[in-house]
Amino acid sequence: MQLFSILAVYFIIWWLTLFLVLPFGMRTQAEENDVVLGTTESAPSKFRVGKVMLTTTIVAAAIYAAWWVLSVELGYGIDSVPQIYPRFD
């Protein structure tokens, strides 16, 4: 697999994982009783960019490693789905 393809797949996995990780540990301004004038109560009180980026990178690396083992090492892909889940007629 070429380097560009590896980076493209990892970037897509990382970006999707970011949206899964964002709500974890978030506390709203309403929960902290510190609503800033002009913002909604559901806005985050403190956004920890570093923690979110690190968590996203670690989780995305684990997902990418699982994908790599299944697709490259074991040879499973989209064409393998009918063999894994056969149709029952």
Automatic annotation (TrEMBL):
Protein name: DUF1467 family protein
Organism: Mycoplana ramosa
Pfam families (alphabetical): DUF1467
Transmembrane segment boundaries: 6-24, 52-70
Record carries keyword Transmembrane: yes
Keywords assigned: Membrane, Transmembrane, Transmembrane helix
